[in-house]
Amino acid sequence: PRPRAQRLPTPATWTLLAVNVAVFLWMLLHGVSVTDPTPRDLIRFGATDTELILFYGQWYRLLTATFVHVGLIHIATNMWCLWNLGLLGEPLLGPWGLVAVYLITGIAGNLLSLFWNVAIAVLRHDPSGLLSVGAGASGAVFGLAGILIVLLSNKQLPIPQVELSRLRRSVVQFAVLNLVIGLGANLTSFLRIDNLAHLGGFLSGLALGPPLVPRMTSGRQRYFARQKITFAVAALALLLIARWIVTFR
């Protein structure tokens, strides 16, 4: 039998999956519909709500919303994507790096969506734009796709160039296809996808990648030290953006 560490080489991926599923089951146990939860249900379990965040200081929702899902199909598709990208990304980022990217890019996606809602409300002088509820891991999933596109461009990785190109092309296709699906879905009357959260997660993932690439093959200690600096700077940037949004309001 293989040692346990070899049987579970991607602990962060499975932990994130388990947390998302646990939150969904917790919602179901408290009477939330498995297919059609109400906005009030989502808010009760941590979804983003523009008004509550801006006027009641509930900024934690930018984080908790990344683990809340709008029904069975929503969580199933997001977890399928998270599983695939996590299995690819965790060996490149490490367990803590993967968790950090998930959280940072998920928050970044929700923050861009929040800013858009505030901007529309201010420019149109219409406070109804602040009545917006969002949830899901898709911003973080797009963030993982974004950083993987950058990391897989490192030709110094001990992986054949043909395989690197194939993996990178697959991630690019995933991101483009899902962004197009999101834009198309919003043209229908029965489905509302937060494409701003997807875009914010994806762009922040792309931004996290370049500082890490030069240290990927320079030893684990130097690579993880660069990760800590990069993620700390990203977290500070998100904090400053959040403070600016409050003043913009």
Features:
mainly alpha; 249 residues; 71% helix; two-stranded antiparallel ribbon
Write up this protein.
This protein is mainly alpha-helical and 249 residues long. Helix content is 71%, strand content 2%. The protein is built from eleven helices and two strands. It has a two-stranded antiparallel ribbon with strand order 1-2.
What is the overall shape? Answer: globular
Could you give the order of strands across the largest sheet?
1-2
Question: How many strands appear in the DSSP assignment?
Answer: 2
Largest sheet at a glance? 2 strands, antiparallel
Number of helices: 11
Residue share in helix = over 70%
Distance between the termini: 59 Å
User: Could you tell me the mean pLDDT?
Assistant: 90
Q: How much strand?
A: under 5%
**Secondary-structure element pattern, one letter each:** HHHEHHHHEHHHH
User: What are the segments in which pLDDT stays under 50 over at least 5 consecutive residues?
Assistant: none
Q: Give the helix/strand class.
A: mainly alpha
Radius of gyration: 18 Å
